[in-house]
Amino acid sequence: MCNVEIINKYKILNQNTKQLENKMKTISIILLVISAFLNFKHGWDAFRPSTPEQAEMMSILGVNEAIMPYFGIFSVLIGLMLLHPKTFFISNVLRAIIIVLIMTLSLKAGNYKMALIEIPFLAMPLLLILLKYPFKFN
Fold first, then answer.
1. In this structure, is residue 62 part of a structural domain?
2. Among 21, 45, 51, 52, which is 20 to 30 Å from 132 by CA?
3. DSSP secondary-structure letter at 65?
4. For the range 72-78, what are the long-range contacts, defined as Cβ-Cβ under 8 Å and sequence gap of 24 or more?
């Protein structure tokens, strides 16, 4: 192989790498927006009166109605922390811990369906940790 062919292959590889990085950044931005939205929504819902289905789910998990505003504040704070680069990692760790706690309480109550439903929501903060914060600031 001559040097020109090696340089051309390197340029193609470099372009493919940049395209992959752009796709991963786009996925990371989409997951970040969805994740922040879900945190804000769950935080807001914690302050509203619970529906009969929510009340039943909370009783199954052993969660008291009086503690819900604290969960709401915590959820909104995590949503805000997600948007800041310095607290991005810890907010995703906290989200993963909360989801594992919900899964644990569900399994303890014998509700395997609820625990299985939480698996994709557990994958989201773990993927965000893997993909890293999508916005670069100098």
1. yes
2. 45
3. G
4. 72/42, 72/43, 72/44, 72/45, 72/46, 72/47, 73/43, 73/46, 74/43, 74/98, 75/39, 75/40, 75/42, 75/43, 75/46, 76/39, 76/40, 76/43, 76/44, 78/39
Tokens matching residue 8: 């051309």
Signed CA dihedral, 88, 90, 92, 94: sign only: negative
Q: Would 70 be classed as within a structural domain?
A: yes
Q: How many domains does the chain fold into?
A: 1
Residue 4 predicted with pLDDT over 80: no
Residue 107, amino acid? L
Q: For residue range 92-131, list pLDDT tens digits in order.
A: 999 999 999 999 999 999 999 999 999 999 999 999 999 9
Instruction: Tell me: pLDDT of 59 over 70.
Output: yes
Would you say residue 86 lies in a domain?
yes
Residue span of the structural domain in which 114 resides: 17-49+57-131
Assigned domain for 45 exists = yes
